[in-house]
Design brief:
It is globular and about 65 Å long. The protein is built from nine helices and two strands. The protein has about 230 residues and is an all-alpha fold.
């Protein structure tokens, strides 16, 4: 399996953890402690995926536009996953140490959420856009929608972080629901991008040269099979 697919697999599994973790039914089924472990495992998988993405982007980090943007997006996102590692571990430690813990188990770390937003914005800005004053992506080609959906997921995580910080202050069930649902929606966006990369072996956030080289290899393989 290629490094791109290993990266996508890590992101897909990590996104699944963050998708199911906020659901009340899941918490009731497995308990608060297991739910906290789910978030921590998801953060570790995100970090592994971010490390692979950074490794793939490293060779072209000095190439203007595509290569440099892919490197910045990968390294900033990886920093965000490290912040999530810390906060999810802290939540897991609290939940495991107190079986009666029955509050919001985890909320997206504001520093990690900012890193995700910056990373998503960098990747989207470097993607092909032309419609509506240059804001909408160019349709066509594998994964053309990924930068937009990835950025949307980052926005959902940001909203969840804000709502999550309001929960301890107000105790509002509405704020807690907003935190949980936006976490799940953000994870669903990341999962969609990861599954598409896993299926096509093409990640839109990787440098353009790598995608072109992979396309050339695929064409060469097709020609050899045809002959």
């Amino acid at each position: 399996m290629s490094r791109e697919r290993w990266m996508a697999l890590c992101f897909a599994l990590g996104s699944t953890c963050f998708l199911v973790g906020p659901f009340p039914g899941y918490v009731q089924l497995v308990g608060e402690s297991a739910d906290a472990v789910t978030f921590f495992v998801g953060s570790i998988l995100f970090t592994a995926g971010g490390a692979l993405q950074s490794w793939l982007a490293w060779p072209e980090r000095c190439i203007p536009r595509g290569g440099r943007a892919a490197w910045y997006a990968a390294i900033v996102q990886s920093a965000g996953t490290l912040f999530f590692n810390v906060t999810t571990y802290h939540a897991m430690h609290i939940a495991l140490g107190n079986p009666e813990y029955n509050k919001l188990v985890w909320r997206p770390d504001w520093r990690g959420s900012i890193c995700f937003l910056v990373s998503g914005a960098i990747a989207y800005r470097a993607s092909r856009r032309h419609a509506w004053h240059g804001w909408l992506p160019v349709r066509g080609g594998a994964g053309w929608w990924q930068p937009a959906v990835n950025l949307l997921g980052c926005i959902f995580f940001g909203i969840s972080a804000v709502a999550g910080y309001l929960v301890p202050a107000t105790g509002s069930l509405l704020d807690q629901a907003a935190a949980n649902w936006n976490t799940a929606l953000g994870a669903a966006c990341f999962l969609a991008c990861a599954l598409d990369t896993l299926y096509t072996n093409r990640a839109s956030k990787l440098p353009l040269r790598q995608r072109l080289e992979r396309l050339e290899h695929e064409l060469e393989d097709d020609l050899r099979e045809a002959t």
